Amino acid sequence: TDIFLDLRSDSFEYQHSLPSKLFCYAALGRPVISSDLKAIRHAVDINNFGFLVKPDRADQIVQIISEYIRNKQFYNDHCRNARRAAEEYYNWKKISPVFLEFIEACSVK
């Protein structure tokens, strides 16, 4: 797959959930076109490796894909940036201490 699309409907659940697939896509070093969800906007700097769109905006999605096809450097930059983001910010070794502390703090003793 050259570009990952994750176009979800606009619902309360999706707006407040961070799709874990996004991090898998970044780790694979591919650009992402994802629904413009509040959770993503607040937690991930996706602008360096993808786009947030309204799922019903087919014209915008086609325009983005066309730009990736026309501009190989732009595509390659987004691939490289996706992989770098996964390695530097969104990998388990980096986030696990904070995440595990959060789980422990939430657990009932």
Q: How is this fold's topology laid out?
A:
Blueprint lengths: L3 E3 L5 H4 L5 H7 L4 E4 L2 H6 L6 E4 L4 H13 L1 H17 L3 H15 L3
Describe this structure in words.
By secondary structure, the protein is mainly alpha-helical. 57% of the residues lie in helices and 10% in strands. It is built from six helices and three strands; from the N terminus they run E-H-H-E-H-E-H-H-H. It has a three-stranded parallel beta sheet with strand order 1-2-3, with helices on both faces. Strand 2, helix 3 and strand 3 (50-53) form a beta-alpha-beta unit. Helix 2 (21-27) packs across helix 5.
What's the short story on this structure?
This protein has 109 residues and is mostly helical.
Mean pLDDT: 89
Largest sheet: 3 strands, parallel
Report how far apart the termini are.
Answer: 45 Å
Low-pLDDT windows of residues? none
Fraction of residues in helices?
Answer: 55-70%
Described by the principal axes of the CA atoms, the overall outline is flat
Helix- and strand-based class?
Answer: mainly alpha
**Extended strand count:** 3
Strand order of the largest sheet: 1-2-3
* Radius of gyration of CA atoms, rounded to a whole number: 15 Å
**Per DSSP, what share of the residues sits in E-state strands of 2 or more residues?**
5-15%
Query: Which H/E pattern describes the elements?
Result: EHHEHEHHH
* Structure annotation, total helices: 6
List keywords for this structure.
single chain; 109 residues; mainly alpha; 3-stranded parallel β-sheet; 3 strands
